[in-house]
Amino acid sequence: MNNNTVTASPKQDKRRIKNDRGEAKKEEECDAEAWNTLSMSFKRVQSVLDHNSDLIKQVNANHKSKIPDNLVKNVSLIREINGNISKVMSIYSDLSFNVSNIVVERRSVKNGGESNLESASNES
């Protein structure tokens, strides 16, 4: 006979399986870590993109003004925009790496293995 029960978490709209080995708790911790990673990364990206939007508006205003000093300022503004695009790429790259690690960790937990975090703490 199976001792598993299915319950819905009030905070999350998902089902999880509870059992005697505490796997549901590990899955929930993994889910919380994944959502936190995604949320933080997307907030950082949105912040950089919002800043770029403001910079682009400033570049356009400087260009329309045709004032030589403003056109010179556009060079540094465009460099900053390009730097910000690199930041966004880096954030997405880090996000991809972090999510991949979370997925590997989750699979390890689901397959009954101990997590990398647990094995590291057991070695010390």
UniProtKB/TrEMBL annotation:
Protein name as annotated: PROTEIN ELF4-LIKE 1
Chief localisation class: nucleus
Start and end residues of each Protein EARLY FLOWERING domain: 29-108
Region (Disordered): 1-26
Locations listed in the record: Nucleus
Organism: Salix purpurea
The organism's place on the tree of life at top rank: Eukaryota
Polar residues: compositionally biased ranges: 1-10
InterPro entries recorded: EARLY_FLOWERING_4, EARLY_FLOWERING_4_dom
Cellular component aspect of the GO annotation: nucleus
Similarity comment text for this entry: Belongs to the EARLY FLOWERING 4 family.
GO process annotations (BP): entrainment of circadian clock; positive regulation of circadian rhythm; rhythmic process
Alphabetized UniProt keyword annotations: Biological rhythms, Nucleus
UniProt KW Nucleus keyword: yes
